[in-house]
Input
Amino acid sequence: MKKVKLFSFGGIALAILLAVIFVSAKPKTEENSFSAQSEPEFSEEVSICTESEEEPQTEPSDEPEASIPLDAATVPDTIEETTEHPSEATESVTETIAVETTATTATTATEKEPKEHGLIIGDYHEPEAYNCGTPGHHCAGPETHALLIEIADKGCDYCGSHTCPSFYATDEWGQGCYDPTKCPEYNVQHDPCYYCQDCGKPCGDGLNGTCAVYNIDIACPNCGECVKAWTCHSCK
Output
């Protein structure tokens, strides 16, 4: 009796074990079968798509292409001349290009030439030379002209003339100026730039017999003597 129960329990256990093995192995088989069936379907779809994307190839036809007739009226005469004389046409084109290149180079060189007026802002225009209208004057501007006219109205300090040559002198730059040395009666002893017109001594700092004149009351820097403004002073 015990053996029968043992065999029955053993059979049941074996059956359960087989059932478990069967159940666990079944999904893998289904998956393998599904993949085996789906692969050809996927390849067929790819092949179908590939075939649909291919463009149909047209076979070359043996018929000659229709040529478009050219109307003689629409064709310029230059084409015939160029065809008849290709070397002359090439030479003319080369000469035209050379002339244009030369003109462009000259323009560029002119633009790059440095100007002699320093920094220029905006368009520069060369100023016109000033002309005061007085014969013999070389005035650089209206200020110079006004100064010369004022001195001439007073008369020359040496000859008293209103048309003295000293009014028509020029400086080292060629501009009009007043130069008393150009007067025919000029005397250096009467020139306040070189001699004091009050004491007659040479103009200087007060040393060596020269005359010094100050515009304020001051102690002489050389001898220390107190000097009044606008008075002659010579150091003792």
